[in-house]
Please model this.
Amino acid sequence: MSDYFVRDEIHRDPVAKEAFDAAVVAVENGTARRVTSKHNGAELIQVGKHRVLGDAVLDHRLRQATAAGEFAAAPLWKFSEKMRRLLGWDEMHFVLDMWVELRIRDPFFHNIGDDFMDQNWVLRGEPGPVDPEVLDFACRIAVGHLKHGPSWSSVSAEQIFGFVTALGSDLPARLRKQGTGALPPELASRSGDGFTAKANDATAVVRITLRRDEEALHEAALQYLVELLESGHFPRSYAVEFRGPVKEYLPCKGLPRKGINQLFACAVRHLGLHALIERYARAAMVEDEWYTNIPDENPALPGTFAVVALAWADVSHVPLLLDYLGQVDGEHQMLHNTIVANYAEQHGFTREALACLVECASNTQGLPHRKVFARLIANPESLGWLAALRSGDETVADLRAHMSEKERIPRFVWREVVHAIWGDDGNNRPEKIIAAAPEDLRHHYEELLS
Model:
């Protein structure tokens, strides 16, 4: 038996309707309380002694406005934002997407493509006048997807913009050109002697231009990016389009040579900016988010180039690199494999490089074998560090946060590490690797592979 009301109960239970009406009022005045169902883990809103399904409160409010003929985009979006702060975007965007389908897509468009994977929605005919408030609200949903959803929510946003444009509105075009207007003026654009920056929160694009290669100008650019991200008003998946006078790139092979690579390659030369670069990286790193102007074959977590810049500059920044490796989407983002391999090739299998390899192996699908790894590990120091990591005498957490918890590497992670260093023989024919090892190191190989 459920411990909360769902919206369908409104039509047969007056108590349910009273509870939903009260929940709307509570959200409006800021007194609503979020709770979790003990029955099935659903997110609920507590109203007095009753509980109602959380996202159904938003559905109820939208239906109220439609039924009353009082559909006004601004106040309804204000309510939606209160719901987002209460429940989170992931708990409510389905209701908004269903609203788009019911109010815009299905009445005016039909699908001439596949029912699932390759849909192609086209107008049914001349649509006639459409309530501009409805179109306004739809565009706010699209921007919500860009700001608060994961990287792939941009697909939903672009589809909504396409629907609204097809219905004769120029609002998507204005948003793409001017943004939503929600950014404070000091974040929407900023300029100074030799520095200009502009952000569009509707298209999730930041454009920065530096006319001179000076520490103060790089500081201004980084400070702007940090403030923009920390404001909470800007999408978490975004593009940074940077132009500067020096075409210099980070010394990590395989990183896309985009403007943001150039920005951090130049900024990291200034020791006084390292703290600000790390602040940007930590503000930028959010799981399931992407730089939207990095090629699809090498998708990058926001903060990638800042992390690489610092990790290559000084070993003291390896804890940041370890945090980054724990944040990346190991299923879809593979650039971290390249980063860890390059770090090892350039620095050797140091204590820190091995910790990065272990962390990478714990958050990726199929860490590739690199022949150079077997050569890099073939020394007593590296083999000893790897053994300490495996046994838990030294953990990745020790390097990240100076913790002392003793924890062995999980078996599946260890197999990935062994494969990355020694290939298939490491797991399937370890005796072959041991027999080929230098005699003075063979006991290390036996300890690791037996």
In short: Residues 1-62 form one domain. The CA atoms of residues 176 and 322 lie 36 Å apart. Residues 132-148 form the longest helix (17 residues). The radius of gyration is 27 Å.
